[in-house]
Each structure stands twice: as structure tokens, then as C-alpha cells.
What does this fold into?
Amino acid sequence: MTRSVLSRKHLKLVVTDDPECAELVPEDSVQLTLPFDDGKAVILMHEADLRAPEAFEVFLGRYQPRWLLDVRVAPRMDFIAPGRALALRHLSMRNVTYVDVLGHVSDTSAWLPFVEALLQGSGGAEGPYAIIFDEECRLREARSCLPSMLYQMDSSDTVSVSTYGRNLIAL
It folds into this structure.
């Protein structure tokens, strides 16, 4: 029987028939979620990765965001529920606070300062924060700017900014 084993020393995938290696990877092993218990965890995602309510339910179940910040020009909510009112009620039942970021700023390029002010003024709201985008350039901007911004807000806290993509998360 051939088994794939990840070598820790070189992080290289190795295929082996060695029965001793079978003990390293249990048969019933599963992918564990990352511990996003602190308030400074931010998960970035593109709307294309959440095409259906089922995909969003998987995301909510795994990462349990407390805030959903929507940085899309046209914030459709059909990936949550068929109607906007139903989607907002669904988020409320899951204790997720929804914010239409671009609906609060007059200039769409001012979204990042708005998010910074929101995170600073959230009154110690529990995290993690999920931010959804429809433009790749804004997603890249968030990926490059948010870690240092969050660190400046509270340098004693651990900062975690990750990108979600179709059931995978990149740190």
C-alpha cells in the first residue's frame, strides 16, 4: 500500500510503502481550522469564492466571523439568502454584524480609512472580521495594508490577516 507523507524537515511530499510512516498520518485525519479567537483576525475573500449559500454556510461554520465588512460596488447578498432582508436576518441569528462599507463612504477609494476607523471604534468587538471584495485590486490592497494597520492599532496583540479561497485559507 502506497501512502503520501509530508516530510517535516524539507516540507516535501514523499510517497512511501513503509508501515512506520503510516503512524504519522492517521487514517481518520481531517483538516483542522485555524484558531481565530483573537479580535485581530481578518479574513479576506473574493465574492467569486462564495457563489452559493451552501459555500457561505461552510465559511461561517469554519471561521465564525463576528463582522462581515462588504467592500463591493454592488453588494448583492444572494450568496447568503434569496433576499436582502432574509440575508440580514440570517447574519443576525449567527451573531454576525454586516456593514456595507462603500455605502458609508462618498469616495470608493476611501474604503480603507473607513475600515480602519470601524475597527478602532468597534468598542472591543469580538473578532474575527471577514471582508468581502468584488475587485481583485482592492483585495490586494487590503492584503498589503491591513497587517501593518492592525499592528499599529495594538502592537501587543497578534495580528492575523488571511485570504480565503474556495475552502482554503492562505496566511
